[in-house]
Amino acid sequence: MFEKYRCLACYSDSCELFLRREGVPVQQNFLSLSHSRAVNVPRGDLCMCFCNECGFVFNAAFDQNLMVYDSDYNNTQESSEHFKAHLQTIKDKLVLENDLRNSTIAEIGCGKGFFLKMMVLDEGLNNRGFGFDPAYVGEEKLADGRLVFQKKYFDSSCAGFKADALLCRHVIEHVSNPVSFLSEIRNALAESRDCRLFFETPCVEWIFDNMVIWDFFYEHCSLFSPGSISRLFARAGFTLKKVEHVFSGQYLWLEAANSGVTNTEVISDRHISEKMQKFAAYEKSVLANWRALIHRVRKSGKLAVWGAGAKGVTFVNLLDRDCQLIDFVIDMNPDKHKRFVPGTGHRVTGYNELFDNDVKNVIVMNPNYIEEIRALLGNHAADLNLIIEPGEYNDNSDRYRASVTQG
Ligand SMILES: [Zn+2]
Q1: Which among 105, 304, 328, 352 has the fewest CB atoms less than 10 Å away?
Q2: 372 lies in some domain
Q3: Is there a single domain that holds both residue 116 and residue 256?
Q4: Cα gap 57→232, rounded to integer Å
Q5: Ligand 1 center–CA 230 separation, angstroms
Q6: Cα(234) to centroid of ligand 1, in Å?
Q7: What separation in Å is there between the alpha carbon of 12 and the centre of ligand 1?
Q8: What does the pLDDT look like over 308-323, one tens digit per residue?
């Protein structure tokens, strides 16, 4: 299981390949309008490597040229109340902990601008905002020009840009060379020495700890732990202020400054290598447990998966590639309905379809949403098993129910 790969963060060649999957769809958040387009999407390989020097986790087989981030790309999660509550937590961090008022805020990879609007359209804060995203859809100027969106990347062409704060949420994991990404940002902010930086990205340590096999997918070519992201920012010349976990541990939240002394001490993550090894050792058996559970529950009635984001798309690609076992995928975002999952062609629909069909089991992709889902289902929840993990499967008993959340 040991091969030589070069780390794209620290250039060490002491990297281990710990997960290989061939022919996976390259984009998870690109739901197709037709079944035939969905099953014929571009594919690439996952060769997930762990750097023993700096802890960086990356896909050594990633090809940036295969990625298209245009207006068909849909990665919005704001249809969920639980996710909106998370965004409010992030806003509170910026406003209450960092006093981000009367400021010019730039957001890289702002999507449709949902969060930037929260920071700028709240008039009491008196902020101005500039959103950058090639996939942006909507008006380019809002609030009398206090909020401006540009359909482009934030790179060296933005040199001289003046900002008090730079937000970058759920972007760096899509970037194959995070070193040059950060140095482009540093160059563009050369005239904003007091600019503060706020980054959010998935925590790979959480994925290892929780054996979330579907959290490794092609779009996320660069993944970080608290230690590896702090090393990266220090190397890029930024001053690290804080790294902490948010969203029940799933995401890292990082605060840094453009000026000041470069940190020499970074966060230790001595045990991350052992966690990666454990993940590599058990990944196949976790997959087998899920496979067994799906075959078992399929006998009692229809089966759905809740969540047509990257997690759900990866899950059905891993476990039902031919679209034979899982009947459909549910998502809260109406823009995703009547579309098809890349790779497998599973139909995406709203949760109302659960009530019209003989659905007995629903696999929930993210445990963070379980209470919200239960509330949405109301009395119907009693008739459904909401499954969040395969547990110990035993063919002769109902033991799998021990880890099934009963409605
Ligand atoms: Zn490295």
Answers
A1: 352
A2: yes
A3: yes
A4: 12
A5: 12
A6: 13
A7: 5
A8: 999 999 999 999 999 9
